Amino acid sequence: MPITPFKLERYFAKYEFSTRYLLSSSDCDGLPMHDLLGLADGECRALWDNLALGYTESLGHPLLREEVAKLYSGISMEDVLLIVPEEGIYMAMQSILRPGDHVICTFPGYQSLYQIAADKGCEVTQWRPEEEYGWRFNPDFLEENLRPNTRMLVFNFPHNPTGYLPSQEDYARILDFAKAHDLYVFSDEMYRLLELDPADRLPSACEQYEKAITLFGMSKTFGMAGVRQGWLVTRDREIFDQLAAYKDYTTICGSAPSEILALIALRNRMSITASHLARIRRNLGLLDELFARHANLFEWTRPRAGTIAFPKIKIGEGAMSFCQKLVNEAGIMLLPSSVYDYDDRHVRLGFGRENLPEGLEKFEEYLKTY
């Protein structure tokens, strides 16, 4: 299958490891190995100390699958398949979709969520948010764009890059639409558990609908992108078996150290997420103040969840030009909306890192040139 270049990843590859101030990162600070191992209970410590670096179980370590299942209601370890997060998107799209199928997908978004389907020969309809209503994804759009060949609904909540989270009512309408038309659902929930108000947390799609496939993992919420550990969850046995069979053609099995490290983190998820949320709230307060001071340069829509936002630039140049000058002249990286193929007037800004205050100070110095 021919592939389309992944614009966001190519942009990050150019600047991510050579730029001092990453104001575009979508994850929380990476957990130090020493700190994480210090959280291990006796069972995890013994698993780590006696770990053999051989093949692991194809479906994933049973203890980790059991721990993942505890994140959900009505889910057992038999519904959990451990994967690499990006791999999980690829496997699901390849397993379920056929050329000529129609897919509705939230947009802008992580390119894999719609590009794999498009490259496979599917028709993809972009479900665009209403910026004037806080980046709302209006459920009315779904019925208006349903086709006889619609096979899958793809969404990402909390949303990358806007930080939008639907209301409980809108979310129920979205899932009711999928159920009424017997659609498969792929729900990217990589930023789950980072809701600013826990009362806003949505049920996972896999809890609400049998034909839903949920993606989650350690990269964003837990600050463990380097372990490359994620999971797919579905109660549909036929789809689960298809996904498990497809994994034999991708990674086959997971990384033995990564599975134990993920197990340690999930057993300590309350303390880890509390620490990240405290940092996120602090950083959002700083962003509120910065954008209030520079309302002539930016239009700020405060996110409801996650670690990223999508402010609009009001200066007399495009986002790509602004970001290129910013990284080259000030060593500060923001992500232009054009890498999402979404206009050239927004930038993705990440606020999950500890050094954001220092980066914002340098950023505000640069803004004095405008």
From TrEMBL:
Highest rank taxon of the organism: Bacteria
Keywords recorded for this protein, A-Z: Aminotransferase, Transferase
Domain (Aminotransferase class I/classII large): residue spans on this chain: 50-351
InterPro entries in the record: Aminotransferase_I/II_large, PyrdxlP-dep_Trfase, PyrdxlP-dep_Trfase_major, PyrdxlP-dep_Trfase_small
Keyword presence, Nucleotidyltransferase: no
Entry keyword Transferase: yes
Gene3D superfamilies: Aspartate Aminotransferase, domain 1, Type I PLP-dependent aspartate aminotransferase-like (Major domain)
GO molecular function: pyridoxal phosphate binding; transaminase activity
Name of the featured protein: Aspartate/methionine/tyrosine aminotransferase
Organism: Pelolinea submarina
Higher taxonomy: Bacteria, Bacillati, Chloroflexota, Anaerolineae, Anaerolineales
